[in-house]
Each structure stands twice: as C-alpha cells, then as structure tokens.
Design a protein that fits this description.
Spore Coat Polysaccharide Biosynthesis Protein SpsA, Chain A, 7-stranded mixed beta sheet, 7 strands, globular, transferase, Glycosyltransferase family 2 protein, transmembrane, cell membrane
C-alpha cells in the first residue's frame, strides 16, 4: 500500500461527543482532494472516547486509533501521532472541534505556493471564538512570547498546523512543545508562515486548560525555549 500524502493527527482527551462530527468534517474536506489518513491519539480518556473511535473505524477506512496507556498530555499525543503517521506531511487539529478541517486544503495550497524552505504553516485565529478571559490571556501570552523568542508568529496556540513530518521529528522534544513549534522550526533553520483560519466556539465538552495553570507552565517553557535558541548551532553538511 502506498503511503498517504497527508496524515491528520488529532489528540483527544474526554472528547467523545466531538469525535464523530470532526471525523466526518475531515473526511468531507479531504476525500477526493488528497490521499490521507486520520490518526487519532486518545490520551487515556476517562470517558468512552476510545470506544467511539473504535466504532468509527468500520465506517471510515482512513481512520487509525492510538491509545496512551497513561495520560501524558497533548504534546506527547501529537508526537506519538506524528511518529506513527505514514504521510510525509502532517496536519494537526485540536480534538474539541474549534478548528475547522475545511482549512486544511487552504494550508496545503499555501504550502504548494511557498518556497521549499518553508516547513511549517501555522493557523492564525483572526477571529477568536473563546471567552473574553481566554482571549485576553492569549494576547498577553503571545506578546511575551514574541518579545522573548522573536518568532514572528501572531498565534502559536492555534491547533491547526501543517508541517513536514521529518522536520518535526528532528526538533527537541519536551512537554508543551506544541505551543512553540514556529520558534523551534526556525531554530532548526527553516522558515514558517502564518495563515488566517477559522475558529469556532466549543459546542460540547469542557476545556482541559485554565489560564493560571497555562501561564505558570508557560513562563518556565519560554525560558527553556529561549535557552535552546541561544544554544543552537547550524552548518551546512557536505559528503565528500
């Protein structure tokens, strides 16, 4: 079997009601446009998300399901999904349904029109559909991150992204790394582009994050990523 052109990786934790409609939207957006697979990673959900995913496999041949033996967080789920993926390019979506899969072809079109050194196409939620407190916290966090990392990215927290699998797997791995992909990809010597995408309100389930907890972890992570950037050394390699 030939590998797919694209692997759509979706991490989930307790999102049983969001899974069927999101899978249907991914299929509607991509079937007939590209050879693709969908790789869901269940982060040891406490509800029946895993059972819902397993039941969908009979209806959606593109669907693959991974399950964490213990809860490990979104970055680990994304990384394990990318490691298991068979496509050379990866699209990621949050499992809560707030990202619109119809934007994946838009990111692919941006990739096809871009220079070959651009390896990450990051979604940019120009019209956030979150609460006022979440939008305020995001603006505050983005301003601090941009000042410290100078990654020229207006929205690193958007879950919908398109990137080359090999480039991602070459990045340093740590918990919460998914929030710093533009800076990490740039550190590796590649370029990134932000693409405006849709954002939708959550219709079911609850958010897995709170503003204070995210801020406290983010401060430590920012310092770590800034340190990684200062310690980066790159050079061209020639075989002779």
């Amino acid at each position: 079997m030939n590998p797919p052109e694209l692997s759509v990786v979706v991490p989930v934790f307790n999102e049983r009601d969001n899974i069927p409609p999101l899978v249907g939207e991914i299929v509607a957006a991509l079937r007939g446009r590209a050879a693709f697979e969908i790789v869901y990673v269940d982060d040891h959900s406490k509800d029946d998300s895993l059972a819902v995913l397993q039941s969908l496999k009979a209806q959606v041949p593109e669907l693959r399901v991974l399950h964490h033996a213990s809860q490990s967080g979104q970055s680990t789920a994304v990384r394990n999904g990318v490691k298991a993926a068979r496509g050379a390019w990866i699209a990621t979506l949050d499992g809560d349904g707030q990202n619109d899969p119809a934007d994946i072809p838009k990111l692919m079109a941006a990739r096809d029109a871009a220079a070959p050194e651009v390896k990450l196409f990051a979604g940019w939620r120009v019209d956030r559909r979150d609460s006022g407190s979440k939008r305020w916290a995001s603006r505050w966090a983005n301003a601090i991150r941009a000042r410290m990392l100078r990654d020229d990215t207006p929205d690193t927290g958007c879950g919908i992204k398109l990137f080359e699998r090999a480039v991602f797997l070459d990045l340093p791995y740590f918990d919460h790394m998914h929030r710093y992909l533009p800076a990490l990809v740039q550190r590796a010597g590649w370029k990134t582009v932000s693409v405006p995408v849709a954002h939708r309100p959550r219709t079911t389930g609850v958010s897995k994050y709170n503003n204070l907890g995210r801020a406290l972890v983010g401060i430590r992570d920012l310092r770590g990523v800034a340190w990684l950037i200062t310690r980066s050394r790159r050079t061209a390699v020639e075989e002779r």
